[in-house]
Amino acid sequence: MKKDNLIIAIDGPSAVGKSTIAKLIAQNLGYLYIDTGAIYRAITWKVLQKNIDLNNKGLVSDLVSKIHISIKKIYRNFKNYYCIFVNGEDVTEEIRNPKIDQNVSLIAKLPKVRRQLIALQRNLAKNGCIVMEGRDIGSIILPYADIKLYFTASEEERIKRRYQELKNKGYKISYKEVKEQIIQRDIIDSNRKYAPLTKTKDAILIESTNKTIEEVKNEILEIIEKYRKSEKQ
Ligand code: CDP
């Protein structure tokens, strides 16, 4: 039977283009788009705001159990914007600050914090019709996803993309700093004991170096179309 409420899981390293493509796919299908990195970023923002020691697992976990995080789709100027709120405060812009990039992986590697966030993420996907992206979506959060994609791109390409993105937003940061942050984050994300970044066996590899956004988007739409056809048999 044709399944319309698919669950699509996307994983991959930093600045590989997951968000850009996931948003376009969600828009094309009329699905919800969830950037789980934004949740870890929002927590990091609150930890830094409260001056909590990042290594104090107990205090960080306490904070996570007390704060309320929500994601809302807002339609403005003919476009969908996904905004993230911490206790009702819109932090969508602030969580992209390089200061958050520097610290987020230290928070995201805490097993207790990750476990605290499983239910929130699964709950967002409970009705299907969702494209969710992060590091452990296909492995831990939604292992039952209909389609799992794992994005890659060369390190150089990823650094270039993120540098350009931050420059466009007006942040004063050097190429060298962006490079260091991305490499450091990838090392922590891939080597942490609990829920490391990994490509599951059933995930389809999407190589995006030297491909345009349009090309990657079409490649994925074809995968989805094929999946739907195979479901019909
Ligand atoms: O945009 P970018 O790919 O650079 O990162 P992000 O998706 O915003 O994620 C920020 C950080 O959150 C990552 O470097 C991970 O440390 C963490 N993260 C995670 O551990 N698990 C997820 N499912 C999503 C993000």
Fold topology:
Elements: E1 7-11, H1 18-29, E2 32-35, H2 36-49, H3 57-66, E3 69-76, E4 79-86, E5 89-90, H4 98-108, H5 111-124, E6 130-134, H6 137-141, E7 147-152, H7 155-168, H8 175-191, E8 204-207, H9 213-232
Helix pairs in contact: 1-9, 2-4, 4-8, 7-8
The protein binds cytidine-5'-diphosphate (CDP).
Notes on the protein architecture:
It is a single chain. By secondary structure, the chain is α/β, with parallel strands linked by helices. It has a domain at 7-35 and 101-227: P-loop containing nucleotide triphosphate hydrolases (Rossmann fold), CATH 3.40.50.300. The chain is built from nine helices and eight strands. It has helices at residues 18-29, 36-49, 57-66, 98-108, 111-124, 137-141, 155-168, 175-191, 213-232; strands at 7-11, 32-35, 69-76, 79-86, 89-90, 130-134, 147-152, 204-207. A five-stranded parallel beta sheet has the order 2-6-1-7-8. A three-stranded antiparallel beta sheet has the order 3-4-5, covered by helices on one side. Strand 3 (69-76) and strand 4 form a beta hairpin. Helix 1 (18-29) crosses helix 9 (213-232) and helix 4 (98-108) packs parallel to helix 8. The radius of gyration is 17 Å and the shape is globular. The protein starts with 6 loop residues before the first strand and ends with a helix. The model has no long low-confidence stretch (mean pLDDT 94). Cytidine-5'-diphosphate binds next to helix 1, helix 2, helix 4 and helix 8.
